Amino acid sequence: MGGLGISAMWAPGEDKTPASSAGNVVGIMANYGNGPLGVGVGYQSNKASGGRARTDFNFGASYDLGMAKLFVQLENGKNKNTVGTGKDSGYALGAVLPMGAASLTVGYSAEKQKIAGTKVSDAKSFALMGKYDLSKRTYVYAAYQRGETDPTGPNNTAKTTKYGLGLVHNF
Consecutive 10-residue runs of the chain (171 residues): their mean pLDDT? Predict the structure, then answer.
């Protein structure tokens, strides 16, 4: 259909406990890709017993300029639970820079979470990955990720640094 794809799913509750009712999950996603442009949107609702529910909305897009492929993602979620309504929102920006058999990927993401209007956490992350193709199905990579989470204030900030090195073969 000209680069358009639509997916939907439904998972009915199957809790066999007589005193409780199980929730269900419903989701829908649409993707469009044509030439250098790719766009996708998705929605998911998880309903649990007792009236609790979580809904998520995602949007993503990419555009291939030839010398670089740029991408962006936005997400927004709501979580109704016994404590209060929680909300989270975030975004991610990135680029892949091809250089022959090698490529460099760079990305930045941030997310904010609140419950009943009170800040629960802010998080942000920066990532860098170098990849080198050994063949059509095999590549090696090295990656670096630096993250920071601020759960309830500047004195509680947790910082993480991760490194990765690997070999991937697709069968």
Answer: 88 65 83 96 84 87 96 92 78 97 97 83 95 97 94 76 97 92
Look at residue 47 in the predicted model and tell me its pLDDT: 79
With a CB cutoff of 8 Å and minimum separation 6, the contacts of 121 are 111, 112, 113, 149, 150, 151, 152
pLDDT at position 20: 57
Of 8, 78, 84, which is closest to residue 47 (Cα–Cα)?
78
Using alpha carbons, select from 118, 111, 103, 108 the residue that is nearest to residue 152.
Answer: 118
- The secondary structure element, H or E, covering residue 60 is strand 53-64
Closest CA to 148 of 118, 126, 164: 126
Burial class (CB in 10 A: 0-12, 13-18, 19+), 23: buried
Encode burial over 126-149: b for 16+ CB neighbours within 10 A, e otherwise.
ebebebeeeeeeebeeeeeeeeeb
| CB 99 within 8 Å of CB 118 | no
